[in-house]
Prior knowledge:
Oligomer: single chain
Structural class: alpha/beta
Helix content: 40-55%
Bound molecules: pyridoxal-5'-phosphate
Radius of gyration: 24 Å
Order of helices and strands: HHHHHEHHEHEHEHEEHEHHEEHEEH
Amino acid sequence: xxxxxxxxxxxxxxxxxxxxxxxxxxxxxxxxxxxxxxxxxxxxxxxxxxxxxxxxxxxxxxxxxxxxxxxxxxxxxxxxxxxxxxxxxxxxxxxxxxxxxxxxxxxxxxxxxxxxxxxxxxxxxxxxxxxxxxxxxxxxxxxxxxxxxxxxxxxxxxxxxxxxxxxxxxxxxxxxxxxxxxxxxxxxxxxxxxxxxxxxxxxxxxxxxxxxxxxxxxxxxxxxxxxxxxxxxxxxxxxxxxxxxxxxxxxxxxxxxxxxxxxxxxxxxxxxxxxxxxxxxxxxxxxxxxxxxxxxxxxxxxxxxxxxxxxxxxxxxxxxxxxxxxxxxxxxxxxxxxxxxxxxxxxxxxxxxxxxxxxxxxxxxxxxxxxxxxxxxxxxxxxxxxxxxxxxxxxxxxxxxxxxxxxxxxxxxxxxxxxxxxxxxxxxxxxxxxxxxxxxxxxxxxxxxxxxxxxxxxxxxxxxxxxxxxxxxxxxxxx
Length: 479
Ligand code: PLP
């Protein structure tokens, strides 16, 4: 493809995507395809001769589009949102157009420094303590990871390294390998699967502690777990607090967990993948009370801040904890500037290579502005509250627990079996998409306002689809 073909093709692609978004309400959320559908449609081998871009877009429409789950549909209410906006797409396009890799400052000064600046901007918008910011006097700073999963694992590995260094200061003869097998990580049973997986990947036993009636990991539970393990010669090393759990969006009290971790020199990481975005609105910051005790904090800008995947914003109070853990030297990398203030980000992450992800964060922050992002978050929460009101007005539906952020959990008063059937029927019909979780042992359906395009009318449409399905189920029960 030469430049003039690129110009033509890029214009056609932009038109295609705009049409997709403008007409997204005309599509079902879920596709009507069977497993293996696409593999059957494409040849077994890559084409021997080049094909032109028109063929590519034609195949895209005929082969790819029918198999799409439409995450940006206003009737997509599953999981949590995945961010997307035209501003972010522009940032991505610029990044791809430059085609660089920014593992050290030297490899791309702009890539490194724009990340420093945008992470300072975002950290300030969220109301994080100064210590987390690169612009503070201390060694704190932000880095963009690919996912919250990576951030949890990076923090676990850094915690492990920091703990072993501390123990070796006390006992230089210490056997590192044996000691590491005694390290224990803790989180709540409500944690995202990725938190448990970080324990698997990082070879650290991860205890999933019981949460209270409201899905919160309490200080007393954590303290007791530390004591039990210490009594057996184990060493508490890492705690993941969840601000906005995936199931019911509950918030662990950092002000209870923080002092316990501090007392035992245990690294405290916060997984605020979804709900952390709401801290750009000052009225929600009470939910991160105790943040000053935290060693690392992560929020997915690619979830609820309109930035396209992947852009997970992670801050640490001490960047040297990461540098010490991950610094592996080679002459060809020659990163003379490995300080916290002008970071060589290869030491802050797992891979060597890294994309220019801050461009899309920058585009969104600039083109929405802080006020635009706050309005967006507040509007999404008010739409969730509207849905809750509609469900509460029908006495067959129970809304429980209290809606949290953009999430509303509900069930049918007749029990788990019929609630499960309701979700199954809705999924089969493909018009709205939701997933389930459990709350206090009951099966509940999660309704999340996910798409930035969702309006009050859309919420009513989704509600009517749900209500009509419930009508049919109740009718069947009578017959
Ligand atoms: N943590 C929470 C609370 C989540 O809800 C999710 C995903 O939904 C994750 C972590 C994982 O995020 P990622 O896909 O960025 O790893």
